Amino acid sequence: MDVKVVSKDEELIQLCRDVLAELALDQSFSITISSAETFEGEADLYIWDFDSSVSLPSRIDSTSSSLIVLVHSRDLPAAKAAIAAETTVVLKPVTRATFSALLSFALSNPPITSLRADRDVLFQRLLQANLKLQQYDQNRTDFLAMVVHDFRAPLTALTGYSGLLLGEPLGLLNEGQKEVVQRMHLSIRRLSRLADGLLQLSVPPHVRRGPDRQRADITKCLQEALDEIRPLGDEKKLEIQSDLVACGDHLYFDPGQITQVLVNVLENSCKFVPRRGLIEIRGYPWFWERRRGPAVVSTLMERRSSGTLQPNSYRIDIRNSGGPIAEENLRFIFDEYVSLSAANGRSGCGLGLTICRGIIDQHRGRMWADNTPDGPMFSFVLPMPEAGFLKVNLAG
User: Fold this and answer.
1) pLDDT tens per residue, range 286-314
2) Based on the domain organization, do 262 and 339 belong to the same domain?
3) Distance, CA of 31 to CA of 23 (rounded, Å)
């Protein structure tokens, strides 16, 4: 089956690739990327990123069952006037779960003809209801963004005050007081990062501030993350081992955001690992086939090929000695509001891993989870434009 994605939105294109890779389990797909201005050729399914300045070709506008149109809320009136009423319309930014459901339906084998009309009518009604729900959800998200923005100011002030106390210009602290203020300072920084992450999630992708990529040292980010989660590790008497292959100044990323990813994943590991358990962190150069995700998906082909097997990314694996993640949860563990309870009953709001994947996606990388014989492992890769490596070790 041929799928044509008509869009200039890199995040949407990547989402299409990822979802199609997940769905391409028992049939073969090919995917072609083009812009509305250069559109040509035929396909079995069209995914059209609506642009009010460009009209849909009449030959696909009339085949609504093979057309999915993605529209920003501001362009919704223009889209409704420009396309057929029965066309599948989805409000941007589209969630991964919604997009997966739509593509699964569009790519499914046609049912018996006598049942198809009733099914399509019911599906269109559901889509209309879903469109309304997306509009309500966007209003809720806008409100959340304003609330989180208001939270950031007092949190920033508290971080400054606690840092001032730790610096002791206002007077010396005894060891007990210093430990209490240190823990308070770390907790406030954690809240600040969570607020920043929530704000990023609430901002639509097309207006979201991109990462401040710069030449940076991944080992420094890991050391900062280890320092921050050390109280959690000490509380459960965990053993933390880390072994990185550093790439000097050949890796470009936002140090603050990648530190946040490491902290979130390590905190998650501390929560689920048993007392006196083990957390292992490894980093190394890796060849990543970007169009096929972390593992090769043989049934999904894009009409271009890669000609090199040289390391083109840097990979971080964080494995803990906790129990395995249920197989049915592996696909959804990075989704918003999905929260798994630990053995001790502790759980979070289900946003930490979502924030992590959002950060990695903005870096044009990829993040996933797997079960290994030694415990669950969370991995992510960052694109690396150059090579040149030096072996280093960090004490856990």
Assistant:
1) 888 765 555 433 333 444 444 556 788 89
2) yes
3) 13
